Amino acid sequence: MKRSLVSVVIGVGLIFSTTAFAKPPKEVPVKGKPADQAVLACPIEYMSSVNAKADGNLTEWHDIKGVDFSTLLSGEYEYDWTGKKDLSANLKVIYSENAFHLLVQVNDNAIVDKLRQWKSDRVEVWLLAEDGNHKPMGKLTGLQFDLGPVTKGGTVGVKALAGNKDLSKVKASAYVAEDKYDVEISVDYSLLAKVTPAYNGGMRYCVLVRDWDQDDVNEDEASIGNCPIDPKKPSAIKADKMAFAQFDLERIAWYSIVGADASIAAKSGDWLKKQANVAFDSAVENVAYLDNQFVIWGLNMSEEGGLAWTTMALNGHGEEPEITFADIDGDKLDEVILTRKEKCLEEGMTATRAYVFDHSQQYGLSLAFNYLVSVTNAEGKTYKNKFQNTKNGIVQTLSGGKPMTCTLDFSDDMEPLLVPGGEKKRTLKKYE
Question: What would the pLDDT profile of 154-173 be if each residue is shown by its tens digit?
Fold first, then answer.
């Protein structure tokens, strides 16, 4: 409140004071905002699914490095946030064959369940799987983990906020202490994409921690995150504003196979590598070929799960190999078709020969059938048939021209070319 001006008589002069006591300036609260937070990405490491589990045992996380964050995205400093003991977090991530794993460790001096106008303390995870070219493999997926039930002896509440809502693909475990809590999370890749990103893709991720202290009727929610996500509309986060983890399981697994199989390690040269779904689950497998040696490897190819591989060696010798895939027996799994050039025993003659391989969980890789595609003479003239992949087999059709004789090694079971005067069409199927 202002005070009256004061007059003072000194000698014969009258002096008026011109100083007044004004109201102190009103303190303006500093509010947190998403733009204040940089994108913080964790170092990423691979860990076998045997050890990487959201079971509350944090032993596997001890040597994993993470990132710390405590900048407010919402709420007011001094009022809703009084320091790192009030709200701060550390985030760690790892990836396995089957899932993306996160550990969120939060410092919070008041861990609460929802009450009256307040909500409970929660952690949100936003994920977007990408392929090796940084193209989205699915939709942005949002998951919420509610700590409220844990404060009363229950389990962490899990809720889907966006994307695939099949919560059977999400595992979570939470531990609450007096002034901190941990949330361990595992999200199966099948929730995020139809094909696993683990081989050479990656994961965009953003973690949002929401905090209520419930000690002031005028309290606002305080929130922090490892990226500039807007707590009011988190689903609007853009991919380039999320942290990114690059996966490298293709290289890691290949070196494991080479180290375990001497016949593969002995090969020198560049392997021809392709990917397709040739085994019994929805994940893609890797197919590699070099110098008559086939290797097919992938995840969950066996009942035990995890990484498995099968090998097969071909007889004879071929050049210019090409690998394609097609479902030619109608089982919704791809057969592997190897096409290569082989020398005929007749001088100057070459042939193109195709081998069709089928994979089964019981027998691994096996030769379904093989057939002659074309024959070329020394002058470059070629005799060939037409071939069409169908769900019932490969349809072979006579297409005219002058037949040529070609004898190949290891051809007792080879399906020959159709020639004039015989069958005009037939269907090549798996050996019985």
Answer: 999 999 999 999 999 999 99
